[in-house]
Amino acid sequence: MKPIALIATRKGLFKLDSEHNISEVAFIGDPVSMVLTDNKNNVWYAALDLGHFGVKLHRSDDQGQSWKEVSAPSYPQTDDKAKGDSLELIWCLEFAEPGNPDKLWAGTVPGGLFFSEDGGQHWALNQTLWQFKQQQEWFGGGFDHAGIHSICVDPRDHNEIKVAVSCAGVWVTKDAGKTWQNQSEGMRAAYMPPEQEFDPIIQDPHRLVQCPSNPDVLWVQHHNGIFSSIDNSQSWQEYKEVPPSTFGFATVVHPQDANKAWFVPGIKDESRIPVAAQLVVTRTTDGGKTFESLSEGLPQQACYDLVFRHALDIDTTGEKLLMGSTTGNLWLSDNQGDKWQCLSNYLPPIYAIRFIE
Amino acid sequence: MPTVVFTSNLKRHLDCPPQQVSGGSLHDVLKSIFSDNPKLVSYIVDDQFRIRKHILISIDNELITDRIHLTDKVTSESKIYIFQALSGG
Predict the structure, then answer these.
(1) How far apart are CA B52 and CA B55, in angstroms?
(2) How many CB pairs under 8 A join A and B?
């Protein structure tokens, strides 16, 4: 049966097929932090966080039937070994050029962006962005050190890339990483002292997504709430009154309709459970003028699931959404979130979900 | 020659039978091991060539003390165990 999505979990990589069967792919027992698929070329990548033995990257050229370990990104050695940085997590992976399965961007903790042009055999740290990190002393959000969790390669020009950093806001390059500019104007961090609320360097976007068919529109689920940009991240607008909560981690945007976006709200900051123990998905269909809570098929009592930032995905048609939680529940919607069907209650904690395109 | 033995848990990921290697310090021993088995490098040391946080190494039943510069002494009769901490999984 043809797989339609991959599910990266705390205890291995799984796949979902079109008949809603879930089966093991690889790495059972090991944490898989991220997956990336290029189905035209049959290439899949899986990033592992082995704990004791460090971060690893594996590549498959036959859609997961066999895997080969390739190099993980590595931070440059420093004169002072005690203070030098080391890779802690591959938090996001994206293809750098459409149709080329070998050119990759990797966002990592502790804050480095890496590029590979040979399928992960070799990696280069983007030194320009890294210098900003070192000089500005980006701080961590969720981890002890800063991390890049979102990479948006502009479909109009793959040299234009936006990355989101916890915590350093949104950064943009238009020359494939030679120069960078922070573009977080309008983002607000209520958790900071009043004088620093709008400081672009301390913003904590939890997830950044870009509409493929209308790339000037971007949506952000921020620690502080929901934001969007309609001018290619030149400015950001905050949506403050969105019940039951504007806090969350995940967001997706409809691939053909930039006005449609989805979020999974929770109680901020440390609690991170559904409001009133009722899991809902928040949706806007009019570019943020209104928001609605979608709950049909989702647990409405005694639910304490959290949906991590990469654990909600939308397919290329914009009809199907797949959502996984820290409690190992997996839900599918075939109708843009109007109704959800639980596909499993027994998966390990879910880190990331990708529809296979 | 010093003998190096690896935790069985590492064998889930890599082939790493016990090895006899040369060297007067842990640094020398690791360099020798890694030259024979380059894939092992990132499993034992981090990007700065420090011992990974959740890896433990003993030399003749004593835990090493220098996890950064790897200067702990090794004799020709030493037995070195590379194993994992109970934390960090």
Answers:
(1) 5
(2) 55
Contact residues, chain B to chain A, C-beta under 8 Å: 9-10, 13, 39, 42-44, 46-50, 52, 54-55, 68-69, 84-85, 88-89
What is the full DSSP assignment across A230-289?
Answer: SSTTSS-EEE---SS-S-EEEEEE-SS-TT-EEEEE--TTTT-S-GGG---EEEESSTTS
What is the set of domains in chain B, with CATH numbers?
3-84 (3.10.20.30)
ipTM for this model: 0.94
A133 contact partners, CB below 8 Å, separation of at least 6: A111, A112, A146, A168
Q: Which helix (H) or strand (E) holds A133?
A: helix A127-136
Provide the b/e sequence for A52-85 (b: ≥16 CB within 10 Å): bbbbbbbbbeebbeebeebbbbbbeeeeeeeebb
Element containing residue A322 per DSSP (H, E): strand A321-324
pLDDT tens-digit profile, chain A (357 residues)? 889 999 999 999 999 999 999 999 999 999 999 999 998 999 999 999 999 999 999 999 999 999 999 999 999 999 999 999 999 999 999 999 989 999 999 999 999 999 999 999 999 999 999 999 999 989 998 899 999 999 999 999 999 999 999 999 999 999 999 999 999 999 999 989 999 999 999 999 999 999 999 999 999 999 999 999 999 999 999 999 999 999 999 999 999 999 999 999 999 988 999 999 999 999 999 999 999 999 999 999 999 999 999 999 999 999 999 999 999 999 999 999 999 999 999 999 999 999 997
Classify strands A89-95 and A68-70 as parallel, antiparallel or unpaired: unpaired
- Asked if B49 and A81 come within 8 Å (Cβ–Cβ), the reply is yes
How many CB atoms sit inside 10 A of residue A182's CB? 17
Say how far apart CA A356 and CA A7 lie, in whole Å.
Answer: 10
pTM for this entry: 0.97
3-state secondary structure of A140: coil
Closest CA of chain B from A69, distance in Å: 9
Backbone angles phi, psi at A298, to 5 degrees: -100, 150
> Mutating which of A10, A32, A52, A74 best tests the B interface, going by the most B Cβ atoms within 10 A?
A52
Strand B3-6 relative to strand B79-84, pairing? parallel
Return the structure tokens found at A253: 């945007």
- The Cβ-side half-sphere exposure at A119, using a 13 Å CA radius, reads 18
Distance (Å) of CA A321 to CA A100, A153, B75 = 26, 21, 61
